[in-house]
Specification:
With 327 residues, the chain is mostly beta strands. It has two helices and 27 strands. The strands form four sheets. A six-stranded parallel sheet has the order 3-2-5-8-11-14. It has a five-stranded parallel β-barrel with strand order 18-20-23-25-21. The N and C termini lie far apart (55 Å).
Length: 327
C-alpha cells in the first residue's frame, strides 16, 4: 500500500526524470489513499487480520501521488514469461483496476496483466507531452472501460487484449495500435458478431481513425470485417495478420465493401508461418485499397470472404521478402 509522496522530477534540463516499475498479483490504482486505520504498524500482520487481509497480494496506488511526482515513465504490472513461452503465474500480475475518478498521467505509461484491465467511471490514463504514449497489454483478458473513462495519448496509444468493452473513449494523438488474437472491425449492424474472446472495433471507434496519422491492426489469427467498413488515415495503415476476412456471410445481408484509404498501406504477416485457413462459406464481399504506395510481403496472408479485391496505387506496389498474398 503506497500512500507516501514520491518525488521523481528531473533536477534541471540536463537530467532525466525518474522511471518506476510496480507490480503485484493484483494492482488497484485509486483516486485517494487507503485508510489503514489507527492500528497499522511495521510489525502488523496482514494474514489473519480481518480488517487488512483483503489487501494481501494486492498493490494499492494513489494515482494523484504518482501523477504529481514528475515521473517520466510509469510501468504497472508484469508478465513473467520464459523464452519458451511458459508463463509463471505466481510471479505475474493477474488484474489491474483503475478506480473511478482516478487519473494516472505521465509521458509514458504501460499497464500489463494476464487478465482484465478495468477502468472505472471517469477514470483517466493519459500519456502527456508531445511524445506521450500509453500501452495496455492484457494477455487473456479484456480492457474494460466504464462510462466516462478515457485512455488518451499525445502521440501513441497501443492496446493488446483478448477483448475490448469500450464504455469510454480511446484517443491517440497520432498513432493507434490495436492487437488481439482475433480483431474484428464492424459496422453498426454487425457489432454482435464479435465473441467474448475477440476484440471488437465498432463503427463509432473506427470512424475516428481518419484524424490519425497511422493505424496498426494486428490479428495473430485473423483481422475480420463485419458488414461495410471504410478505414482512412493520413499517413499509413498497417495490417499484420495471416488472414483478412469478411465474417458476415448471410446471403440476405447484401454485398459489403471493405475499403482502405491512406498514403502508405502495408499488408504482411509476422504472426504465423502460414496464411490463415479459408473460414468463409461464400465469397460475396469486395475489398478495395487506395494508397500512394502499397507494400506486400514478409509472410503469407490470405483473403477470405471476398469476391473481388482491388489494390490501387498512385505510386508503387512493392513485394518484400518471402511470402504470398492469396485468395
Amino acid at each position: 500500500i503506497f500512500n507516501a509522496q514520491l518525488k521523481a522530477a528531473a533536477l534541471d534540463e540536463t537530467y532525466r526524470a525518474g522511471i518506476v516499475s510496480l507490480s503485484a498479483r493484483d494492482v488497484i490504482v485509486g483516486a485517494t489513499s487507503v485508510d489503514l486505520g489507527d492500528h497499522f504498524y511495521f510489525d502488523t500482520q496482514i494474514s489473519g487480520n480481518p480488517e487488512l487481509e483483503h489487501w494481501e497480494n494486492t498493490l494499492y496506488l494513489n494515482s494523484a501521488q504518482l501523477t504529481g511526482s514528475g515521473l517520466a515513465e510509469i510501468h504497472i504490472g508484469n508478465i513473467d514469461e520464459s523464452e519458451e513461452g511458459e508463463i509463471d503465474e505466481a510471479n505475474s500480475t493477474h488484474t489491474i483496476a483503475i478506480e473511478a475518478d482516478a487519473r494516472l498521467a505521465a509521458p509514458v505509461i504501460s499497464l500489463t496483466a494476464l487478465n482484465d484491465i478495468t477502468m472505472g467511471e471517469n477514470a483517466v490514463v493519459e500519456g502527456t507531452g508531445e511524445t506521450g504514449s500509453v500501452s495496455m497489454h492484457s494477455r487473456t483478458g479484456k480492457l474494460k472501460m466504464l462510462a466516462g473513462s478515457l485512455v488518451q495519448s499525445a502521440y501513441q496509444t497501443a492496446i493488446d487484449a483478448a477483448g475490448l468493452e469500450r464504455g469510454g473513449d480511446i484517443i491517440a494523438g497520432q498513432v493507434l495500435k490495436l492487437s488481439s488474437d482475433r480483431l474484428y472491425i464492424t459496422d453498426l449492424a454487425h457489432q454482435t458478431l464479435a465473441q467474448a474472446d475477440e476484440m471488437l472495433v465498432d463503427q463509432d471507434f473506427w470512424e475516428s481513425f481518419q484524424t490519425l496519422a497511422q493505424v496498426w491492426l494486428t490479428g495473430r489469427e485473423q483481422v475480420g470485417f463485419g458488414g461495410s467498413v471504410s478505414l482512412e488515415t493520413t499517413d499509413a495503415i498497417v495490417v499484420d495478420t495471416p488472414s483478412i476476412a469478411q465474417v458476415s456471410q448471410d446471403p440476405e445481408d447484401g454485398t459489403h465493401t471493405v475499403s482502405f484509404n491512406t498514403t502508405d498501406l502495408y499488408l504482411y504477416n509476422s504472426q504465423s508461418d502460414e496464411a490463415g485457413a479459408d473460414s468463409c462459406s461464400a465469397n460475396t464481399a469486395s475489398f478495395t485499397a487506395n494508397a500512394r504506395t502499397i507494400s506486400i510481403g514478409r509472410g503469407h496472408t490470405s483473403f477470405t470472404g471476398f469476391e473481388t479485391i482491388s489494390l490501387t496505387s498512385a505510386g508503387n506496389i512493392t513485394f518484400n521478402g518471402q511470402g504470398s498474398l492469396a485468395t
